[in-house]
Amino acid sequence: MNILYFAWVRERIGLPREKVETSARTVLDLVEELRAREERYAVAFSDLSGLRVAVDQELADFDASWEGVREVAFFPPMTGG
Amino acid sequence: MKISVQEAGFDLGQESQDFAAGHRDMGAIVTFTGIVRDAARGGMVAMEIEHYPGMTQSALEKIAAQAMARWDLGDALVIHRHGRLERDEMIMMVATAARHRKDAFEAAEFLMDYLKSRAPFWKREITAKGADWVASKAEDEDALARW
Q1: Considering the entire predicted model, what is its pTM?
Q2: How many whole angstroms separate alpha carbon A58 and alpha carbon B55?
Q3: Class assignment of domain B2-136?
Q4: Where do the domains of chain B lie?
Q5: B44 in contact with A at a CB cutoff of 8 Å?
Q6: Tens of pLDDT, residues B65-85
Q7: Ordered domains of chain A (ranges, CATH)
């Protein structure tokens, strides 16, 4: 699965994208796996209320579950316009 | 429907002319343009806009399609830039064409409200001291509730 990070999430984790092997079936499961990896992930994912997630390029909820998902992206609330 | 995510600048006059010229049957054209300003008066010299290349275009298309479905519109246009923008440069524009002005105005406001917090762009303000990510505002999220 490809995981993408944008804006300050990208800066805190230190990379824009990575490929991970995971058996996670929900966004929250994936977040737990990432948090357990290293401190920088735990810091980036410490407050989920300040984060947004997209699953296969569609905005999703953190409790969203999936089947055969290819790409998950984490980022702060968007500031377009 | 023209949706453009681009690094290059755009000519507001030309885009507006072209949009209006394609809709001579429409009685109302509304345009909105966003400009890089030092809103917080924090000495901002430029802005950097990051986006999610795989998702941005489709997210904007969906937002514009929602506007087209909800109001009696002839057409909609969205141009949104990314990359580094200097102060006073134009960041983005939306335009709507409708038979009546109420649809054109409301749809343009809807587009702006959704672009602010549902399109994957992130602004960073550059000052002489460094760079800071622009925080989203609660009022931008609240603005969606009225739709």
Answers
A1: 0.95
A2: 7
A3: alpha beta
A4: 2-136
A5: no
A6: 999 999 999 999 999 999 999
A7: 2-75 (3.10.20.30)
